[in-house]
Amino acid sequence: MESFERIFNESSCILTEGALVERLKTEFNIRLDDPVNHAGLIYNKPKILEKLYSQYIEIANKHNLPIMIMTPTRRVNYESVKDSKFRNKPIIPDACSYLNTIRERYNGKSQNILIGGLLGCKGDAYSGEKKMDMHSAYNFHSKQTVQFQKQKIDFLFAGIMPEINEAVGMARAMAETGIPYIISFMIRKDGCLMDGTVLSEAIKIVDNHVSVKPICFMTNCIHPSNLIEALNNAKNKNSKSIKRFKGIQANASILSPEELNNCNVLQQDDFETMINEIAFLHDDFNLKIVGGCCGTNEKFLENLSEKMMNKVR
Question: What mean pLDDT do residues 68-90 have?
C-alpha cells in the first residue's frame, strides 16, 4: 500500500486500463452475466479476460510506465451477487487473487503493476438520481470494502460515481479500510456531476466528510474534449479543490452520458485527437493518471503511452 502512494507522488504519468467490457462484447461476442457483468469471466473465461489485462500491462512495461489495473467488480455488491449465477462464489476475493496471479507472471516488472479493488454505484451510473443518503450508502458499500480490506491489493477505486451522496458514503467506507483510494466521478461537460453538483464542490464535500482523504479524484467514461470544457468552466477553473483532480479514463465518444446510455452502437472518435487532448490535460491541468474507457483498445493505449513518454522524458 505504501508503494501506491509513493508511485503516485513520484510519477508524472501513470497508465491505467483501456476498455474491458466493450471489447469483450465486440471482439469476443461474449454474453456477460447481467447482475455482476464481466466479473464472472474469472471463472468461466479467465484466459480471454487475462488477454486484455496482459495487453495493457505489456504496453506499460514497454514504455516503463506504472499501470493501475482493477478487479472486474464494479457491478459486484451483496445485492447483485444474490441474482447472479455466481452467487455461491467469493467473487471479490477471487478477483483479487486472479489479478495477483497475473501480476506474478511479470517478475521483475511486478512492482510497477498496481492492483486496485474496483467498486461502483448501486444504481445507474448514467443517472443523477439520489437513491441513498450518505449513511445508507456507507452501510451498503462497506459490505464490499471490508472484503477488499483482507486482500492483497494496492488501492481502492470508486468508478463513475454519478451523485454526491453515494460518493461520500463510498468514500467513508473506503477510508476506514486503511487502503489508499480514489473517487472517480461521472461528469458532464458543464462541469457538474450527473446530479448537478459542481465538480470542485463535490471534491470539497467528499474531503470534508472523511477521516482519510482520497489520494486524488478523477473521472472515467468521458471524452477528453468534454473534460476540457468541464474543467475550464468558471465554477471549476479557479477553485483550489480542483487541484485534487488528477486523472481520466477517456471514453472514445463525444456524446453526452444520456446519449451514450441509450446508444446501442459503439462510438469511437479519432484516437490521435483524443490523445492530443489528454496530453493537453496532462500539461495544463496536471492530470497524471491516463487511460481509456468505452471505445478504446490496446492500440489507443499504445499510442497514448508513446505520446506521454515523449512528454515526460
Answer: 97
Q: Distance (Å, rounded) from C-alpha 70 to C-alpha 38?
A: 12
Listed in sequence order, the residues at least 6 apart from 2 whose beta carbon sits closer than 8 Å to its beta carbon are: none
Are 148 and 181 spatial neighbours (Cβ–Cβ below 8 Å)?
no
Query: Distance between CA atoms of 130 and 128, rounded to whole angstroms?
Result: 6
Tell me the three cell numbers of residue 20: 474491458
**Cα-based angle 159, 162, 165 (whole degrees, multiple of 5):** 105
pLDDT for residue 293 is more than 60: yes
How distant, in Å, are the alpha carbons of 17, 46, 66 from that of 50? 13, 6, 18
DSSP codes, 82-97 = HTSTTTTS-HHHHHHH
The residue among 93, 14, 3, 97 whose CA lies nearest residue 56 is 14
pLDDT band (50, 70, 90) for residue 19: very high
Q: What is the mean pLDDT of the chain?
A: 94
Residue 69's closest CA among 137, 159, 139?
159
The pLDDT tens digits of the residues spanning 156-199 come to 999 999 999 999 999 999 999 999 999 999 999 999 999 999 99
3-state secondary structure of 110: helix
**pLDDT for position 1:** 53
Secondary structure (DSSP) of 134-146: HHHHHHHHHHHHH
Q: What is the structure's pLDDT at 265? A: 53
pLDDT at 262 over 90: no
What is the mean predicted confidence (pLDDT) over 279-289? Answer: 97
Q: What angle do CA 174, 180, 183 make, to 5 degrees?
A: 60
Which cell goes with 5?
Answer: 502512494
Q: Which helix (H) or strand (E) holds 25?
A: helix 21-28
